[in-house]
Amino acid sequence: MLIEKLAADLKQAMLAKEAARTSTLRMLKSAIEYHKMEKKQESLTDADVTAVIKKQIKQRQDSIAGFEKGGRADLVATEQAELVILKAYLPEELSPAQVEEIVKAAIAEVGATTKADMGKVMKAVQAKTGGRADNRLVSQIVGASLV
Question: Per residue in 95-113, pLDDT tens?
Answer without folding.
Answer: 888 888 998 988 888 888 8
